[in-house]
Specification:
Elements lengths: L1 E6 L20 E5 L5 E4 L4 H11 L7 E5 L5 H4 L14 E7 L6 H7 L16 E7 L3 E5 L2 E8 L5 E8 L2 E6 L11 H7 L4 E5 L4 H6 L8 H11 L3 E5 L7 H14 L3 E3 L5 E3 L4
Helix pairs in contact: 4-6, 6-7
One zinc ion (ZN) binds next to loops.
Length: about 280
Amino acid sequence: MKVRFWGVRGSIPTPWKEAMDVGGNTSCVQVIPSTDTLIILDAGTGIRLLGNEMVRNKRAQNLTGHVFLSHTHWDHIQGFPFFSPAFIANNHFKVYGASKAEERLEDVLKGQMNYQYFPVQLDQMGARIDFIELQEETIELEPGLRISSCAFNHPGGVYGFRIEHEGHSVVYATDMEYTLESLDPRLVEFAKGCDLFIYDSQYTPDELQSKTGWGHSTHTAAAQIAAMAGVKRLMLYHHDPLHSDQMLIQMESEAQAIFPESHLARESLEIDLSTL
Ligand SMILES: [Zn+2]
Ligand SMILES: [Zn+2]
């Protein structure tokens, strides 16, 4: 199983010269099992690049793709209207997100494409798009390829995802606010022993002081949680738009002092889990 990062920035796209190396597109990660099933975690602006590459490689036709949304904040859905394969007839996308009492997932995704905001409506995109509302559950996309969802702490709620296939595992846990004091033991359990742990490291501990309640963690908490969960490798993810490449490299080395296998998630980085 491989994992490829298409967007690693939090909050808002960050086209900024001093942040180009790590990358400015918002949340989107592709999980590539040996069967090549298309699995996409979040549809931030990074999904546009993934779609363009699929078209370029002539792999954008007659496919079924699975798009799992951690939640529907802008930086996790804003790329979907620019995802070219969703405009191609005979493609089928299943979009998964948390079931909520007060709103339908389908309405939220359609809402961001209302004519006040966007010229093309979701119904006009061309592909068949189905919406699947999740509980905390495990679903099997194909024999032996499982994805589990678990709710964590973020304003409006967020789901973490754990994907398992052929003895390898990746945990995608972005947009969640935990310190060692407020840590939900379910997160440690959820991430336990995974190969790759992708975790929200938006702030420094100093920044968190004025941003408590905004729903994000620090790079030092990320490293501590990774150590507690006994993961193989931590990917620091959902970088703050204020953080330059230089600042992020500093945060990476601070995280490594706590958990040596800490690395910055960077746009277009691909990791083969069998090499970890
Ligand atoms: Zn976010
Ligand atoms: Zn969010």
